[in-house]
Task: structure prediction
Amino acid sequence: MSADPDSYVDLRSDTVTRPSPAMRRAMADAEVGDDWYGDDPTVNRLQDAAAELAGKEAALYLPTGTLCNQIAMHAFVRPGRFVACEATAHVGGTEAASAATMSGIAFRRVPARARGLLSADQVAAVLEPDPYDVDQVDLVAIENTHQLGGGSVLPVGDLAAIAKVCAGCGTPLYLDGARIFNACAVSGTTVADYAGHVDALMFCLSKGLGAPIGSLLAGDREFIREARRLKILLGGAWRQAGMMAAAGLIALRDGPGRLAEDHAHAQRLAEGIAEIMPDGVDLGAVVTNIVFVDASSSGHSPREWEQRLAEHRVRVTLVSGRVRMLTHADVTARDIETALAAWRRVAAELIP
Result:
């Protein structure tokens, strides 16, 4: 963080990171072309690297993870049919209106038994054929890590069991892996370990990996060919995108190895807040870089906590009625202590 006394400890999201010096140099020196024509060499290197990392035939560089998800769902799901997902999944919540508008699809939302993590038997139940042959599920989407589950991690074995169910029903399986590198850091696995069980997946460069923009969609060549067509159709075509892709290559190189530090910072943050507000934090749920705090026991609204913390130079956000904080590359151990000091001061102001 900056030494500027007016600076904030920004815990709103891991998307708020600033490009590292290495990224800025790579962006300035990037070799570029016109990606609409497919001849930007840096974009092509990034796409090839992502495909190799995921063990897939091809990959496509896109501006956002949401656009990755929307293109994938448009490609897999026919209008008037369903995507099955966990009840609090990003695709079926934040993105539901986009999917309805762009693709004419709806969602079968299945409440997980714990922290947003679906099981194979739950997926099997939602894929049971409709006896009237009206409601049709064309795709199962899994989110890993699961953001509203507190950054929870689905083990590879559980994904494999879900994949077996989907294969038995002839239903494609898609992985919204916006923070899949965080899941890999916790589980000791690789992206390819997860990707090997799904038909397609996406992951973000602009979250834990620290790039300024961009996400990648990966799958077989025919799927990516159609995804590229949809990218242009929906207005997502790049021009000299190699300047951004250069930062993405640095993110892939440097980002995964430092995620354990983010996780340790999140654990320290959660433990410190639990000392202030014992009923506000489920320490067992903090396994990656996301910390949720239920401020309701304080007698004050989450919005008031958000505003008071901002007065003390700490930025948080509100999600599903809880205070949410994410650690990331721009947050140091010292910043965590600064944030905890702010929580203590606000608690002293609000809690008798």
User: Anything to note?
Assistant: The chain is about 40% helix and 15% strand. Residues 259-276 form the longest helix (18 residues). The domain at 9-17+258-350 is CATH 3.90.1150.10 (Aspartate Aminotransferase, domain 1).
